[in-house]
Amino acid sequence: MIAEIGHFALILAFLLALIQGTVPMIGAARDDPAMMAVAKPAALLQLGLTAAAFLALVHAFTVSDFSVALVASHSHTLKPLIYKITGVWANHEGSMVLWVLILALFGAMIAAFGANLPAALRARVLAVHGLVAAGFFAFILFTSNPFLRLFPAPVEGEGLNPLLQDPGLAFHPPFLYLGYVGFSISFSFAVAALIEGRVDPAWARWVRPWTLLAWCALTIGIALGSWWAYYELGWGGWWFWDPVENASFMPWLAGTALLHSAIVVEKRDALKGWTVLLAILTFGLSLLGTFLVRSGVLTSVHAFATDPDRGVFILGLLILVTGGALVLYAIRAPGLKGGGLFAPVSREGALVLNNLLLTTAASVVLLGTLYPLILDALGGGKVSVGPPFFEATFVPIVVPLLIACVIGSTLAWKRGDLSGVFGRLGIAVFAAAAVTAAAAWRAGIEDFLAAFGLGLAAWLFFGALAEFAAKIGVGRVPPGSVLRRAGNLPRSAWGMTVAHAGLGIVVAGVTASSAWQTERIQSMNPGDAVDVAGYTVTFRGVSETRGPNYRAVTGRFDLERGGRLLAVLRPEKRDYPAERSQTTEAAIHTTWLADIYAVLGERAANGAWAARLYHNPLVPWIWLGAVVMAAGGAVSLTDRRLRVGAPRRARRGRAVEAGAPP
Amino acid sequence: MRPKRRRLAFVVCGMLTLGVAAALVLAAFEDSIVYFYSPTEVAENKPPPDRRFRIGGIVVKDSVIRGADATSVRFRVTDTANTIDVAYTGVLPDLFREGQGVVAEGRLDADGRFRADEVLAKHDETYMPKEVADALKESGRWRGAPEGGR
Question: What is the ipTM for the molecules in this complex?
Answer without folding.
Answer: 0.79
